[in-house]
Amino acid sequence: MHLTKEEEKIFNGEKGEVLERMFRLLVRLGDIYGADKMLPVGSVQVAGVSFKSIGMPGLEFLEDYAKKGAKVKVLTFLNPAGMDLESWKEIGFPSDFAEKQIRVMDAFREMGIVVTSTCTPYLAGNLPRFGEHIAWSESSAVSFSNSVIGARTNREGGPSALAAALCGLTPNHGLHIDENRKPNIVVNVDVELQHNADFGALGSFVGKIVKDKIPYFTGIKNANTDQLKSLGAAMAASGAVALYHVENLTPEARFMDIKGLEKIKVCEKELKETYAQLNTGENPDIVILGCPHASLREISELAEKIKGKKLKKPLWICTSRIMKECANRMGYTEIIENAGGKIVADTCMVVAPIESMGYKTTGVNSGKAANYLPGFCKQNVVFNNIDELIKVIK
């Protein structure tokens, strides 16, 4: 790999121990994947934020780097934490967990990282431009930025994303290169998709089949950004899809040649079977929406659906702190709380310790959450669209 003179100085330790270690990690990754050089990145998004995920070894690592004066070189946001950082007591997060989580956030803040704690950084102030090279690590954010925005990132791990943030660089390989962004399988969708959950079910089905390939969708007549977010998140969870194209909807689709590619078809039968597979429980203890984090549109739609109602079971909608502030100003938070629900910021059902908070069965409308909750949180899952989930708890 070609290194500039400045990069050689970092590699040789002339810029300090922390940068040397982080840069050597990037060089090793570049060597493994055949990168020819380093690329400057416009922004970074770091995963490995919840104390539930990283434990004491991760916390000690972060505190050590912060103590040694590590500072990021580019705009860097964080993935969701393990709790609502402001309302954790009220919601019922364990105090011993909270103490460790706050230390994690303090270490990131000391490194100059914006402690936004969201898996939708593009809704919270970190919006890359089309074609911009970035280094993001959260699977649904990677999918959205590559596919819907047309920015360029590989699916970074927590350490490699942190290294990119501290060095301002990432190796030039994978989805940073034009040739590697071409589709290699066509998915013809022959079923009407109405709800976000339908897009999640479609993504869950396709992800299992295509694994880490790049699918090109035909037959999706229309989809808003929340629905595309649900589609990509589910494919990233059930498979390892980091980029997809949708005919007439996503920005790079028009440039792609799909002649001669392998084809699969998804009909109503496949969608119904996927719904059945994702349902592993009945009668949820709690319904949690917002995986990936809810947009203001999703929060407003929920508020409209439960306005004036009284829910018999807990309901959370997870979002970024910025979206919650907007919801507060619009009165959506008050409507949702009056019905018995909560807008929970900074975290989500996948990285929060919900299994230690008394919940055993969780209702979701997210294909991503339905894939992850049984393993990560020991949950039975009720997967359905938002209207049906509200019926169950009102």
Q: Summarize the helix and strand pattern as letters.
A: HHEEHEHHEHHEEHEHEEHEHEHHEEHEH
Main pleated-sheet profile: 5 strands, parallel
Uncertain runs: none
Mean of all residue-level pLDDT scores: 97
CATH T-level topology of the largest domain? Aconitase, domain 3
Strand content: 5-15%
Number of helices: 15
Give the CATH H-level superfamily of the largest domain.
Aconitase, domain 3
Major beta sheet, strand line-up: 12-11-10-13-14
User: N-to-C terminal Cα separation, in Å?
Assistant: 60 Å
Counting DSSP E segments of at least 2 residues, the number of strands comes to 14
Helical proportion?
40-55%
Q: Mind telling me which CATH architecture of the largest domain this is?
A: 2-Layer Sandwich
CA-based shape: globular
* Quaternary form: single chain
What is the SS-derived class?
A: alpha/beta
Domain count:
3
Q: What Rg, in angstroms, do the CA atoms define?
A: 21 Å
Please report the first level of CATH classification, the CATH class of the largest domain. Answer: Alpha Beta
Written overview of the protein:
There is one protein chain. The protein is α/β, with parallel strands linked by helices. Helices cover 43% and strands 14% of the residues. The strands form 4 sheets. Strands 12-11-10-13-14 form a 5-stranded parallel β-sheet, sandwiched between helices. Strands 8-7-6-9 form a 4-stranded parallel β-sheet. α2 (17-33) crosses α7 (158-167), α8 crosses α10 and α11 (296-306) crosses α13 (332-338).
